[in-house]
From TrEMBL:
Keywords: Signal. Residues 1-23 form the signal peptide. This is PAR1. The keyword Signal applies. It comes from Arabidopsis thaliana x Arabidopsis arenosa. PANTHER family: PAR1 PROTEIN (PTHR33649). InterPro entries: PAR1.
């Protein structure tokens, strides 16, 4: 019985740590385009992906810290499962409330799976909605 309890505790910790960087400090400027969007630095600043063009015409992606602070979340890179559950894209540029105008997006964002697995993403978009004077509705089961 004790072994079963230890196993369950280990699995729970593994699940929680699957969204974090397992003890490493997240610095937005060190993240690549596949991990930047929806990450939060160790200082609590949200990371944003930006695209620029070099003189040669090549697109370059850069991750940087935004001025937007996350509520009660630090040092996290969202898991691929979270990104998928909430209907997000790792190649999202900047932080915008535009997606809130799309009903398919808000249905995924308010789904039980997204709400339960991705508190960082939910916090971000619910705060963006509030900043726009909108309140997102109750969770919808897909």
């Amino acid at each position: 019985m004790a072994l079963k309890t230890v196993f369950v505790a280990f699995m729970l910790l593994l699940a929680i740590n699957s969204q974090t960087t397992l003890g490493h400090d997240v610095k937005c400027e060190n993240l690549d385009e596949n991990t930047c969007a929806f990450a939060v630095s160790s200082t609590g600043k949200r990371c944003v992906l930006e695209k620029s063009m070099r003189r040669s015409g090549i697109e370059v992606y850069t991750c940087r810290s935004s001025e937007i602070e996350a509520d009660k979340v630090t040092n996290i890179i969202e898991s691929d499962e979270c990104i998928k559950a909430c209907g997000l894209d790792r190649k999202s540029l900047g932080i915008s409330s535009d997606a809130l105008l799309e009903s398919q997006f808000t249905q995924k964002l308010c789904s039980v799976k997204c709400l339960n697995q991705c508190p960082n993403v939910v916090d971000l978009f619910f705060n963006l909605a509030a900043g726009e004077g909108t309140v997102l509705g109750r969770p919808v089961r897909l």
